[in-house]
Amino acid sequence: MTWPTALPLVAILRGIRPEEAAAHTQELVTAGFDAIEIPLNSPDWQRSIGDTVTAFGKQALIGAGTVLSESLVDEVADLGGRLVVTPNTDETVIRRSRDRGLYTAIGFATPSEAFAALRAGAQSLKLFPSTTFGPAYVKAIRAVLPKDVPLLAVGGVTPDNLGTFLDAGCTGAGLGSDLYKPGQTPAQTRERADAFIHAYRQHYA
């Protein structure tokens, strides 16, 4: 298994409004992001995901976060989304996502949850909240996970600490409020996107 896009950083646009989605996504894609998550607790998320898929679906992996049920998986798939991200380990959500052809990044906290997710068909894992557990936990859990499973750190990741999670064994990260907060301008999103991409590339330079 490998992460399906060139850059293993997921932009999480929690709280974005449909009328703002295109401008912020354009800045992210221009900066180099190719995975965009719109959480389902955002206002009018159906319109945001549908519009974003239409405008940027050929340039980036577009999908949904905070996907908590099979019916929501179906809604995302019907909108053209290709990515499902969860905060938890729910085997029914994983199986439905795979049945609908969506790529899965499944939230977990313990080894038991991680292996349950993989048995159900998860293609990648998301340690959440990652800063609560810390890089030492990542290193310990990575030692028992299959080496080819992509592992994302999500929750509190910043340009300053991204490298510590990569060193510990993460493939990449999901980036939330340190990348996008409701109300910020597209220019601010671009500035923060550039900072994350610079941190990622400098780590491997």
Q: What's this entry about, in short?
A:
With 205 residues, the protein is of the alpha/beta class. The chain has helices spanning 18-31, 45-56, 70-78, 91-99, 111-120, 130-133, 135-142, 162-168, 186-203, and strands at 9-12, 35-39, 61-65, 83-85, 103-108, 124-127, 151-154, 172-175.
CATH superfamily: Aldolase class I
Radius of gyration (CA) equals 16 Å
CATH class division: Alpha Beta
Count of DSSP strands: 8
Spell the H/E element sequence. EHEHEHEHEHEHHEHEH
Residue share in β-strands: 15-25%
The biggest sheet, with number of strands, parallel, antiparallel or mixed sense and barrel status, is: 8 strands, parallel, barrel
Main β-sheet, spatial strand arrangement: 1-2-3-4-5-6-7-8
CATH topology call: TIM Barrel
Distance from N terminus to C terminus (CA atoms, Å) equals 24 Å
Number of helices: 9
Protein described:
- The chain has 205 residues and is an alpha/beta fold.
- The protein has a single domain (9-203), classed as TIM Barrel, CATH 3.20.20.70.
- Helices cover 44% and strands 17% of the residues.
- The chain is built from nine helices and eight strands.
- The protein has helices at 18-31, 45-56, 70-78, 91-99, 111-120, 130-133, 135-142, 162-168, 186-203, and strands at 9-12, 35-39, 61-65, 83-85, 103-108, 124-127, 151-154, 172-175.
- It has an eight-stranded parallel β-barrel with strand order 1-2-3-4-5-6-7-8, surrounded by five helices.
- It is globular, with a radius of gyration of 16 Å.
- The two termini are 24 Å apart.
